[in-house]
């Protein structure tokens, strides 16, 4: 059965990573840009996790109470019994859980990510082959045009203005297409005057 790729807001939401080694480090590094309130529980931390800013560290063994109130939990320990306990506890409480390298104990998978500003794409093989997901991720990242994060930011910035100034849905769609094409061509560096010209043209088109 395939897994549906939900995109959820995790900014300022509590999430838990159990484990303090390099596997946990890779997960934490992917989560940090999304602004979650990350708690890391482990009897010991590798140097990178120990020195990392923006996370809360609790240096002890995992306890069942650690999962309470968490949006999701990631188990990244090298102890199969601890990982199994984390999975069981989370499933009983309907807390999404990912146990690294053990698909049977996961209720969600950690995708291979491409992030360019607010543009995010995630790829998963359903836990069957992380290498395959990473392969496609690398292909997509290489295909993302230069300045694409600026293109997305520009479109987000003008979205409400376009909706307000062009009430006709077909003309509005054309305006967005023209702005997008110009932004791609200029790597996001589109002036206010150029936006004005596009909107005027679409407002005047076909009356």
What this model shows, in words?
With 207 residues, the protein is of the alpha/beta class. The protein has two domains: 14-110, NAD(P)-binding Rossmann-like Domain (Rossmann fold), CATH 3.40.50.720; 148-204. The chain is 43% helix and 16% strand. It is built from seven helices and seven strands; from the N terminus they run E-H-E-H-E-E-H-E-E-E-H-H-H-H. The protein has helices at 22-31, 47-51, 80-92, 130-143, 148-165, 169-185, 192-204; strands at 14-18, 37-42, 55-59, 72-75, 97-99, 112-116, 119-123. The strands form two sheets. A five-stranded parallel beta sheet has the order 3-2-1-4-5, with helices on both faces. It has a two-stranded antiparallel ribbon with strand order 6-7. Strand 2, helix 2 (47-51) and strand 3 form a beta-alpha-beta unit. Helix 5 runs antiparallel to helix 6 and helix 6 runs antiparallel to helix 7 (192-204). The protein is elongated. The protein starts with 13 loop residues before the first strand and ends with a helix. The mean pLDDT is 92.
Provide key terms for this protein.
single chain; alpha/beta; Rossmann fold; 5-stranded parallel sheet; two-stranded antiparallel ribbon; 7 helices; 16% strand; elongated
């Amino acid at each position: 059965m395939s897994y549906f790729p939900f995109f959820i807001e995790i900014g300022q939401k509590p999430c838990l990573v159990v484990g303090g080694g390099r596997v946990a480090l890779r997960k934490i590094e992917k989560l940090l840009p999304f602004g979650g309130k990350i708690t890391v529980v482990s009897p010991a931390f590798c140097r990178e996790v120990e020195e990392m800013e923006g996370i809360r560290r609790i240096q002890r063994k995992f306890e069942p109470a650690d999962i309470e109130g968490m949006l999701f939990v990631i188990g990244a320990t090298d102890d199969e019994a601890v990982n199994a306990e984390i999975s069981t506890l989370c499933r009983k409480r309907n807390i999404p859980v990912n146990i690294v390298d053990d698909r049977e104990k996961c209720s969600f998978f950690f995708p291979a990510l491409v992030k360019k500003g607010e543009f995010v794409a995630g790829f998963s093989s359903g836990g069957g082959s992380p290498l395959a997901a990473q392969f496609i991720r690398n292909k997509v990242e290489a295909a993302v045009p230069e300045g694409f994060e600026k293109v997305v930011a520009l479109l987000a910035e003008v979205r409400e203005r376009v909706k307000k100034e062009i009430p006709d849905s077909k003309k509005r769609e054309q305006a967005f297409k023209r702005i997008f094409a110009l932004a791609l061509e200029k790597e996001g560096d589109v002036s206010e005057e150029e936006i004005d010209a596009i909107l005027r043209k679409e407002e005047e088109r076909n009356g």
